[in-house]
Design a protein that fits this description.
Structural class: alpha/beta
Number of helices: 25
Radius of gyration: 23 Å
Oligomer: single chain
Distance between the termini: 36 Å
CATH architecture of one domain: 4-Layer Sandwich
Length: about 525
């Protein structure tokens, strides 16, 4: 007998799977997805992941061989963690806090992760900030039988450029697949809204969807506010528009909530704004679309346009979208520094996989495997879950990645533009001024707010605290803060990364000494 122990996700191709596995389409969503997992495992065993489209992480127990089987989706949109106890039992699940509460878990800080975090601003790779607690990485399954742990990779992103197609051919293929995905992304009985920024990804998703309502957040400071552009897009598409104005007081007040529910520190300042957006949106819907995935698949970041310039040097320094602190600076700041613990070590195996690819494909592959999983999807999952909101990401789909994996880099970026083919596809339903609008990113005025004494009292207090002194040389981190207040605005990311770690540590080791 097979029992589903835990499951979180949304299976997009449920209709075809129900037909193939002999499952009634009339079942409720929970019932049918449970049946899909059970009957799919009975039919395909450990190969089940290759038959599922969508977002998923689940564990099951097979009493025929006393096996615990766990699997995480191809891109890591849903988290999954595991821990082996001293008496060799497997603890696992999609939430860290639930694992921490189980018998046999011993809470201990993984101090090495702080050294990685100070560069990347997120927990990259399979390790976490809790010693012994591992992430099951994307595209992997785990089997635990007779006390033996086995982890196998069932899917790897591969890039095989096809030079026979034109720009219009690629745009047509993207648009056709996005059109198909939107026939599957929800049932007729479900009502979804959509997040909307000023960018092409969320605008394309909204335009392709039947969402009547879209949601955006903004600021009183026009320099950082994309919501006016989003409002214009909503009006053009005839959709109702909700705007949430984020104040600095609201932003700083919610940081402990975010770090507690994130379960790991995250130094991405946009995560705080996203948490507020999720809570506001959840007041009037329980289902929302978001546009993650296209940037990494189709060359959306401005740095990708420099890929050819980096060439073979990429493998010596490129570890993903963020690398804010160099080793000499970390050595000065950290009380516990190990010269063997380097961010580049996390991606060495990936660089071996992608040897021979062009530089842009290498950068994209690193970001898909490390950055998306460690930052973007973690943020989307944790903050939506905390708010009671379900988010579906139509552009994060194997069919969309398949197109990107075959597309030559010249159709992704050029000297003037990024995401060229994707924007061309979007222009089939959006005006060109929206489809080809310059990428701004999810910007937050934190670089200004951090220097304002009206808002930064907790930051200053934590930088002087005994808690901070456990990990950092206080003179060094406060000098970074003084330089920032004195005008070096580039230091804000370093300050925010240190601060978010301290807030997380306080939540998990000071306020909540569970399992110590």
């Amino acid at each position: 007998m097979i029992k589903i122990c835990e499951y979180r996700g949304h299976i997009v191709n449920w209709r075809s799977l129900c037909d193939e596995l002999g499952i009634s389409r009339e079942l409720s969503r929970d019932e049918r997805e449970t049946e899909i997992l059970v009957h799919g495992y009975e039919k395909w065993g450990h190969d089940i992941g290759g038959h599922l489209y969508g977002m998923f992480a689940f564990s099951l127990y097979d009493d025929s061989n006393d096996e615990i089987f766990c699997i995480r989706d191809h891109f890591g949109t849903k988290p999954f963690y595991y821990y082996i106890t001293e008496d060799n039992r497997l603890l696992c699940g999609t939430m860290i806090r639930s694992i921490m509460e189980k018998d046999g878990f011993v809470k201990e800080l993984n101090i090495d992760m702080l050294q990685i975090y100070m560069s990347l601003t997120y927990t990259a790779g399979e390790d976490t900030f809790l010693k012994g607690l591992k992430k099951l990485m994307p595209g992997r399954w785990l089997s635990f039988v007779n006390g033996k742990l086995e982890i196998c990779r069932y899917w790897t992103p591969e890039f095989n450029p096809d030079s026979t197609k034109s720009l219009d051919d690629w745009a047509d293929e993207i648009h056709a697949n996005v059109t198909q995905i939107f026939t599957e992304i929800k049932t007729d009985s479900e009502t979804a809204e959509s997040f909307l920024s000023g960018g092409v990804d969320s605008s394309y998703v909204l335009a392709m969807s039947d969402a009547k309502v879209c949601n955006s957040c903004g600021y009183d400071d026009e320099r950082f506010d994309e919501s006016a552009m989003a409002a214009g897009t909503a009006e053009l598409l005839g959709r109702e528009f909700n705007r949430c104005v984020i104040t600095p007081e609201q932003y700083f007040d919610i940081v402990p909530y975010v770090m507690k529910n994130m379960e790991q520190p995250l130094g991405d300042a946009s995560a705080i704004a996203f948490a507020i957006a999720c809570r506001e949106t959840a007041k009037h819907t329980k289902l929302c679309y978001s546009g993650e995935g296209a940037d990494e698949f189709f060359g959306g970041y401005n740095m990708y346009r420099n890929a050819e310039r980096y060439g073979d040097n990429l493998k010596t320094f490129y570890v993903g979208n963020t690398n804010i602190m160099k080793e000499d600076e970390k050595q000065r700041i950290l009380k516990h520094y190990d010269p063997e613990v380097l961010p580049i070590n996390i991606v060495k195996d990936i660089y071996e996989e992608i040897e021979g690819l062009d530089p842009l494909s290498k950068m994209s592959d690193i970001d898909i495997q490390i950055w998306l999983e460690g930052d973007i999807y973690l943020n989307v999952d944790k903050m939506s879950t905390a708010a009671g909101l379900e988010i579906r990401m139509p552009l994060t789909d194997r069919r969309i990645f398949d197109i990107a994996s075959r597309m030559p880099s010249e159709f992704k970026v050029n000297a003037e533009q990024n995401k060229v083919a994707f924007r061309t596809a979007a222009s089939k339903i959006l005006p060109e001024e929206i489809a080809f609008r310059k990428k701004l990113g999810f910007i937050v005025p934190i670089r200004i707010w951090l220097a304002d004494e009206r808002y930064n009292a907790d930051v200053r207090a934590k930088f002087q605290s005994e808690m901070a002194a456990e990990f950092f040389n206080l003179d060094e981190i406060n000098e970074i803060f003084r330089e920032y207040v004195g005008g070096n605005s580039d230091n804000w990311r370093k300050i925010w990364t240190i601060y978010t770690f301290l807030v997380w540590y306080e939540e998990y080791f000071v306020k909540n000494p569970l399992s110590e």
